[in-house]
Specification:
Chain lengths: 342, 261
């Protein structure tokens, strides 16, 4: 090969990846439009767009369908970004916000806030539930990290303590449900199925703010995370402080998972499927992998939102059920496809 | 530029692994083979010099105290290849090297980075693998990429832990020949922990042999290797003979005793 021919060859890969990301973004726009156009009322998008201001049709478009569709995109991006970062820092392709009990802790925090009617002086009621979800998720994350560090802080140790945390958080959640009123239990059970029906612009803005805070911080560490894919020993040899990187990532994941869980409940598999789709189509150069995972997660979640309204006409299924039902076969197909690759 | 070690001691918890190691100055362009039985402390010494293990004493590279220097200063001067192979992952080999360069030299411009990567792939004969995924490469090929990640930074001190453990005969010769050439050309120093004594005797300008009591031999291959040293370092009865090319060659006859430190 001639001088700098490798750089030229590599640039072709980069162009291919940029094209893939553009295709993902276009698919996301199409999925978003489809999501807005679909609803239990069966009203067509054209009719909704032509509706007069403050009319019922305008309310359906602006206060129901659009905030739900935007929330689906944001939650999908947040969960997939969180999953991608966890998979890299824990060196485990099955890691997601569920793995370390982050989601379970956020669920416990939010459920406690609902059941015990917790409040924070000076804070609007709408913000109390996500605050407690985040506090619980962060607390669980820091505890897992602290315990793992005391035992050597390897990625496997973090995962093991995380799995223990899942069971502890589930037990505490059952305890909260046990002492809760029947109404509150019903509310929590419905909420743990994951649903976009409680979406609003205010809540979407908070999820967007969390993403806007976390994504640039993630992108600042793309080289460190790319290098970490070579293994912890090699990353350390390049001066990367692996334990510190893992802690920072886990705090980010706590925030992303907590806001998602606090507003839409438990949504499974997006944190797994998003990163896997990105890995298959974009590789693991984190300059592309992280934003690609966010795009893929947003796309899958947007499609799941549409499916949740289209599967049973006139009825909106909890989107968490749809992501689980669609996510499991998709995930299996991805894994089997990956095994067949050379 | 020279490297010298004085009174280096390293422990794992309360268990001392190396105690009071001294190494006379190593001249630029030298390739030093670090030999010794399993558990003698070869990897431990390299990890400490790379700043990955706490150690007492003094390790000086041209005035820079390696044990206390800020990480960024040390990374500019020292390249360390761990014993473990780079993981099989969907990263391209090119990206693995680019990532290593970016993580340690964020100041380097894109053109300079591309040129450095091109050179290291060409010199190691890895051009054909550069745009393959790490997961598609064999263990030996990944080891070569790991070496490329170190060499691309052109460090003044190369710390290589078993750099040929996964390589076939052809690549063993190519890698050590390349390291020796780079050391000579750039006036760098290579400190290589290695089990293959004959390979070390062929390419190293100096051998440092670790035993239970620290350094038990230090000198040119012809001087450092002897039946007595082989017995003390490895617990074997062996011979040291000259091969037809003039390099010392070790022939291991039998184990003297069963032991594992």
């Amino acid at each position: 090969m001639t001088t700098l021919s490798l750089a030229r060859g590599y640039r072709r890969f980069i162009i291919g990846r940029l094209a893939t990301m553009a295709a993902l973004a276009l698919a996301l726009v199409a999925a978003f439009v489809l999501d807005v156009a679909t609803g239990p009322s069966g009203l067509r998008l054209g009719d909704l767009l032509q509706a007069e201001q403050h009319s019922t049709l305008a309310v359906i478009l602006w206060d129901i369908r659009l905030p739900q569709a935007v929330t689906a995109v944001l939650v999908g991006a947040a969960l997939a970004l969180a999953g991608a970062e966890m998979q890299t820092t824990l060196n485990n392709a099955l890691a997601s916000p569920f793995t370390l009990g982050v989601t379970n802790a956020a669920t416990l925090g939010a459920a406690s806030a609902i059941v015990f009617d917790l409040s924070v002086p000076g804070l609007a009621a709408m913000h109390v539930v996500p605050l407690f979800a985040f506090a619980a998720a962060l607390g669980a994350t820091l505890l897992v990290n602290f315990l793992a560090r005391s035992q050597g802080a390897g990625a496997d140790t973090v995962v093991l303590f995380g799995i223990a945390m899942v069971f502890v958080m589930n037990a505490l959640l059952w305890l909260v449900q046990y002492v809760a009123s029947a109404d509150a239990v019903q509310q929590i059970v419905f909420w743990t199925m994951g649903s976009l029906t409680r979406s609003s612009w205010d809540k979407a803005a908070i999820i967007a703010a969390a993403l806007a805070l976390c994504l640039p911080l993630s992108l600042r560490q793309v080289w460190a995370m790319t290098t970490l894919r070579g293994g912890e020993d090699h990353a350390r040899s390049f001066g990367i402080q692996v334990e510190r990187l893992r802690l920072v990532v886990l705090v980010r994941v706590s925030l992303l998972a907590a806001v998602a869980v606090a507003f839409v409940g438990t949504i499974g598999f997006i944190g797994l499927v998003g990163p896997h789709l990105a890995r298959l189509t974009l590789g693991e150069d984190h300059r592309f992998y992280l934003p690609g995972a966010a795009l893929a997660g947003a796309l899958v979640m947007s499609l799941a939102s549409t499916a949740s309204k289209a599967i049973v006409p006139g009825l909106v299924l909890p989107v968490g059920i749809v992501t689980a039902l669609v996510g499991i076969p998709l995930f299996m197909a991805l894994l089997l496809g990956q095994r067949r690759r050379p | 530029m020279s490297l010298s070690l004085a009174d280096i001691s390293i422990s794992y918890g309360r268990k001392p692994v190396l105690d009071g190691i001294d190494l006379a100055p190593v001249a630029p362009g030298s390739v030093v083979g670090l030999l010794g039985a399993n558990g003698a402390g070869k990897s431990t010494l390299l990890r400490a010099l790379a700043g990955l293990l706490p150690a007492s004493g003094r390790a000086e590279l041209d005035g820079l105290d390696l044990l206390r220097a800020p990480a960024l200063h040390r990374l500019r001067q020292v390249g360390y290849l761990p014993q473990t192979l780079p993981q099989a992952s969907p990263l391209l080999a090119y990206e693995a090297v680019l990532g290593a360069l970016r993580a340690t030299r964020p100041d380097l411009g894109a053109a300079a980075a591309e040129a450095a990567i091109e050179t290291v792939f060409a010199e190691l004969g890895l051009h054909g693998l550069a745009l393959s995924r790490m997961g598609q490469l064999s263990g030996g090929q990944r080891q070569m990429v790991g070496l490329a990640q170190v060499l691309v930074r052109q460090p003044r001190l190369l710390l290589l832990d078993e750099p040929t453990s996964a390589l076939d005969l052809r690549w063993q010769l190519a890698v050590l020949g390349n390291v020796a050439q780079q050391a000579r050309r750039q006036g760098a120093i290579a400190l290589i922990a290695i089990h293959d004594i004959n390979l070390a005797a062929r390419f190293c300008t100096r051998l440092v042999i670790l035993g239970d009591a620290g350094i038990i031999a230090d000198g040119s291959p012809a001087h450092a290797l002897s039946p007595d040293i082989l017995h003390r370092a490895y617990g074997i009865h062996g011979r040291v003979e000259a091969c037809s090319l003039g390099f010392p060659m070790v022939l291991a006859d039998r184990a003297a005793e069963r032991r594992f430190p």
